[in-house]
């Protein structure tokens, strides 16, 4: 079965999913009424069909908010920029173990195959805030992955 949604229906569906997540966390919804919630033109970009994005705070049990994507226990992921493949062993949401998580949730993930000694480049050059740069990127191997997206899509990831 295939469901075809227009942009408006997709926005409503994403708002319903976000509202359900917030209600499930026993949080107060940011809007006073459901009507105000749906009339808000701001739609959180929390699409599960996008690649998994998670800002990492600590060690092999990583803590952070899932910025996009969806995953299950046992899924293989790639840590960037080192391109190391890791496996998700466990998820923890509100100190309870769970088998899957959605974007927008603050979670803890326990990973397998994590190495700490990988240094991509010592003292890398970077563009500072409000600077403009022209960059040339080269893919050294066929099938190599590069994550490129505008800062405005994921400002929390830097």
Keywords, separated by commas or semicolons:
Elongation Factor Tu (Ef-tu), domain 3; 2 domains; two-stranded antiparallel sheet; 25% strand; 158 residues; alpha+beta
In CATH terms, the superfamily of the largest domain is: Translation factors
Task: Tell me the overall shape.
Answer: globular
Helical fraction equals: 10-25%
Compute the average pLDDT: 70
Number of domains: 2
Count of individual helical segments: 2
Outline the fold blueprint.
Elements: H1 7-24, H2 34-39, E1 53-54, E2 61-68, E3 70-72, E4 76-79, E5 84-93, E6 96-98, E7 100-102, E8 106-112
Antiparallel strand pairs: 1-2, 2-8, 3-7, 4-5, 5-6, 5-8
Question: Would you write up a description of this structure?
Answer:
This protein has 158 residues and is α+β, with helices and mostly antiparallel strands. It folds into two domains: 1-44, no CATH class; 48-116 and 133-151, Translation factors (Elongation Factor Tu (Ef-tu), domain 3, Beta Barrel), CATH 2.40.30. It has helices at 7-24, 34-39, and strands at residues 53-54, 61-68, 70-72, 76-79, 84-93, 96-98, 100-102, 106-112. The strands form two sheets. Strands 1, 2, 4, 5, 6 and 8 form a six-stranded antiparallel sheet that branches. A two-stranded antiparallel ribbon has the order 3-7. Strand 4 (76-79) and strand 5 form a beta hairpin. The mean pLDDT is 70.
């Amino acid at each position: 079965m295939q469901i075809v949604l227009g942009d408006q229906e997709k926005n409503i569906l994403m708002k319903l999913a976000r509202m359900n997540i917030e209600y499930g966390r026993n949080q107060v919804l940011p809007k006073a009424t459901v009507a105000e919630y749906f009339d808000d033109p701001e739609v959180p970009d929390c699409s599960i069909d996008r690649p998994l994005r998670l800002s990492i705070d600590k060690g092999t049990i990583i803590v952070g908010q899932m910025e996009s994507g969806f995953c299950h226990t046992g899924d293989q992921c790639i840590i960037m920029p080192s391109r190391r493949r890791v496996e998700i062993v466990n998820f923890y949401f509100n100190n309870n173990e769970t088998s899957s998580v959605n974007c927008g949730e603050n979670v803890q993930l326990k990973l397998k195959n994590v190495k700490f000694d990988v240094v991509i480049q010592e003292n890398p050059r970077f563009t500072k805030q409000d600077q403009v740069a022209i960059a040339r990127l080269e893919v050294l191997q066929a099938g190599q992955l590069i994550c490129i997206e505008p800062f405005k899509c994921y400002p929390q990831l830097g």
